[in-house]
């Protein structure tokens, strides 16, 4: 059964850029990805940032750099799953809104 994490709301900067950081432990084989691949065009980059002082492969955050591409709001769902499995362990809803001047 997939666990639903509490939804996040993030404000993009004036250029429509924002970042989402989700906790991840690569050694488990679980990795965050977008549930809807059609929205992947809004992900400018996805990187992993290890926690300082931890062993390589330990816990850290998967950081997604987003671009609204002119949209006022973007609704995304990220899933935490193993690449060889179809069912996700967790789902994370994220709403990104354009910064109001």
UniProtKB/TrEMBL annotation:
Record GO terms (molecular function): cysteine-type endopeptidase inhibitor activity
Organism: Pseudoduganella dura
Domain Proteinase inhibitor I42 chagasin: 17-91
Pfam families for this protein: Inhibitor_I42
Protein name: Proteinase inhibitor I42 chagasin domain-containing protein
TM helices/strands, residue ranges: none
InterPro entries, per the entry: Chagasin-like_sf, Prot_inh_I42_chagasin
Record's keyword terms, sorted: Protease inhibitor, Thiol protease inhibitor
